[in-house]
Amino acid sequence: MDVFEAIKGRRSIRGFKPESISDADLEKILEAGISAPSAGNCQPWEFVIVRDQKIKQKLVQAARGQSFLAEAPVVIVICADVNRTASRYGERGRTLYCIQDTAAAAQNIHLAAYALGYGTCWVGAFDESAAAEAIKAPAGVRPLIMIPIGKPREKPKPTPRTPLRERIHQETF
Ligand SMILES: Cc1cc2nc3c(=O)[nH]c(=O)nc-3n(C[C@H](O)[C@H](O)[C@H](O)COP(=O)(O)O)c2cc1C
């Protein structure tokens, strides 16, 4: 699939069929994730692949009841090993770069999953310590994004965007 087709066609999916994901597809999707750029190529990302229903339920609770997380056959929890970037870039690495890096990996994952016929949703509204506890994240590893992934049970309409011309500034703001 053409990259522009994936960018334009992807939608947030919040309903999934029970059909599982093949290991080969999951690997391809995660490979797309780690192909993202990262500050100093520190690659702070860690991916926790959750298939266990009990752990998924804990993630739903952490995410204030967003039950569609548990409907997906797999939830990828993208974490940042903060010290990997902070040891090189200090405060800016800790508070900015490692977060941008995981976001870049997440977007690659969304697009690759869409290109392979899967639906995903970026889930960011969750209690970080509850999520960390659910996946037993070690100290210094922050769960930042949850991505449920599976065959879509819905086909949402495109969401609106503010026209580009209203967001572009020539030369200065
Ligand atoms: C940082 C971030 C956090 C988000 N958190 C949630 C979330 O917790 N739950 C949810 O259903 N959608 C969440 N979304 C998805 C947005 O609601 C969605 O991307 C937006 O409405 C545009 O729709 P689209 O993805 O279909 O283009 C989040 C997206 C981003 C980028």
TrEMBL record:
Keyword set, alphabetical order: Flavoprotein, FMN, Oxidoreductase
Renumbered to this chain, region (Disordered) spans 149-173
Pfam families cross-referenced by the UniProt entry: Nitroreductase (PF00881)
- Supply the SUPFAM superfamilies for this chain: FMN-dependent nitroreductase-like
Give cofactor(s), names only. Answer: FMN
Which Gene Ontology molecular function entries are recorded, alphabetically?
A: oxidoreductase activity
Database matches in Gene3D superfamilies: NADH Oxidase (3.40.109.10)
**InterPro entries linked:** Nitroreductase, Nitroreductase-like
Q: Which domain of life is it from?
A: Archaea
Basic and acidic residues bias spans: 151-173
**Could you tell me which residue ranges the Nitroreductase domain spans?**
7-65
**Annotated family:** Belongs to the nitroreductase family.
- Full protein name: Nitroreductase domain-containing protein
Q: Which organism is it from?
A: Hadarchaeum yellowstonense
Q: Where is the organism placed in the taxonomic lineage, from the top?
A: Archaea, Methanobacteriati, Candidatus Hadarchaeota, Candidatus Hadarchaeia, Candidatus Hadarchaeales
